[in-house]
Amino acid sequence: MRASLPPRFQRATHIVMIDMALWVHFWLAAERHVEWVAGRLEHPPAGNARPAPLKKLFETIAEIDRDWLPEIRQLVADEEKRGKPVFRLATLEAVGSFVPSVLESR
To the nearest whole number, what is the mean pLDDT of the chain? Predict the structure, then answer.
């Protein structure tokens, strides 16, 4: 999966980089986990009936933040230097307003 990132970035016409603080990802994962356990999550990831253990989910989120994100940020910066449009979203508010702004520009 990780090795596929450089060619995927190269083929992309635009890049949307969601780069929020680690605690925000933990918070969102915990909220979704609570909804899932309570049976209120409408669209479970990959159609799974039961959520993954929360500890393992947090470990995976932390690993991606620690080990993958520096490389991803560099790949994004490289593509931006080549002239590719990059949208960096660093807050929930930015994510929430991004899709409507894209749809309005069409």
Answer: 91
Q: Is the pTM of this model over 0.70?
A: yes
Question: What is the pLDDT averaged over residues 39-45?
Answer: 87
Q: Which amino acid is at 103?
A: L
Average pLDDT over residues 21-31: 95
Say if residues 44 and 36 touch (Cβ distance below 8 Å): yes
* Nearest Cα to Cα of residue 32 among 19, 43, 22, 18: 43
Provide the 3-class DSSP secondary structure of residue 39.
Answer: coil
**Contacts with 89 (C-beta within 8 Å, 6 or more apart), sequence order:** 16, 17, 18, 19, 20, 95, 98
Distances (CA, A) of 82 to 8, 53, 71, 85: 15, 41, 17, 9
Find, among 24, 38, 48, 30, the residue nearest to 96 by Cα. 24
Q: Give the tokens for residue 64.
A: 């991606």
Distance of CA 35 to the CA centre of its chain: 19
pLDDT of residue 103: 62
